Amino acid sequence: MLRLLPCLAALLLLASAPVIAQQEETADPEPDAPIAAEAAPNEDARIARRIEALFSEIDALSGLSVSVEAGVVTLSGETTSAEAARRAETLAARVEGVATVESRIERDVSLTGRVDPALGDAAERVRAAVRALPLVGLALAVFIAIALAGWLIAARGGLWRRVTPNLFIAELVSGVVRVVALVLAVIAALTLLDATALLGALLGAAGVAGLAIGFAVKDTIENYVASVMLSVRQPFRPNDHVVIDGKEGRVIRLTSRATVLMTLEGNHLRIPNAAVFKAVILNYTRNAERRFDFKLGVDADDDAQAAVKLGIETLQAQDFVLADPEPAGFIEQAGDSTLDLRFLAWIDQGAADYLKSRSVALAAVKAALEDGGFTLPEPIYRLRFDNAPPAQGEPPPARPRKPASSTTGQADTRPDEAIARRVEAERAGEDAPDLLSETARSE
Known about the structure:
The chain is an alpha+beta fold. The chain has helices spanning 4-20, 43-56, 82-94, 111-155, 157-163, 167-192, 196-216, 218-233, 273-278, 304-316, 354-371, 418-429, and strands spanning 26-27, 65-69, 72-79, 100-107, 241-244, 247-254, 258-262, 268-272, 281-283, 289-299, 328-334, 338-348. It contains twelve helices and twelve strands. The protein has a five-stranded antiparallel beta sheet, with helices on both faces. It is rod-shaped. 18% of the residues are buried.
């Protein structure tokens, strides 16, 4: 360890040699200005007094000595920094009548010369901080007052629930009020402290950070905005039977991120709200009345108009079919060997199930047409056996027809509430937030 001390001392001397070395630089503020051939009487003394007066007003330069001979200013003494020495040279060169400046200023590297100014600066800063305490206290009080006022306004949940469409929007407005109040409190406090530069830096940083975060979480923000719009528009209600972009099910709830459906198979289906907001939505529950249709074909030789009339009368006889709008039927097209008939009827979905009603109606019309003597064509296949060719002119054997049975008034067409009951159980069993409302206005 002792052997290292001479090496360390040598390194310190080498590092401080340029600092301790005397500066022999000269400053000539106006190299092109002409120098008078003869100096005015007492000119040197006037220049010296002027420079000394300037240096005496500056603490860092007050200890320098000034001598002037024939317009040449010689500066000597010690300063705490090279910047102070350059400042002395510049001030001396600016005095009228100075021909040139010769600097012999050295840097003060003594412990006292370095520590005392630092202690003085620290003490001055402490005194300035003490003097600023009342202003800091006022700025803090203004910050607390504005932030507290914003918190109190945002905390009035009843107010926002009355002026906003739903609880989700009320909470969103409350959060915005808190953030705005906090920003205003910071701006007011920094303005009182005259820290406008810091305020500008904070606002600029916040803007850049907000832009970067916006690009990073663009999909999340889009989804959140879609949640807000859906909660305001309310395009469907809980337990509505909907088809969203080809996905069918009953609505369980609308959350801040997704719309949750229960498919007709009893499975959970979550669709992001951004996709729901832009999707085509088909709502089967919004209108209680719903129309079903089906097709039947009769033989081309049968009276198609009579078949249509019989089919309509059969539909009118079904107790689940509405009289207004009344059932309808028409000939849709003529096929190769059939006439395709299309029948339509309306039901009340609150009293009858769509699929059950359509099934019962189709079976009833088919049975009525068969009982009325109309032939419902079916595919005919001809089989050829090479070892036993079919007899020429012999018609194929007729298939015995089963007796038709009417299903009028016998089938159960009540609505199937299995999925609806499961949806209600899901809604009642979970405390997850729901943005849908039974009473809110729906578009």
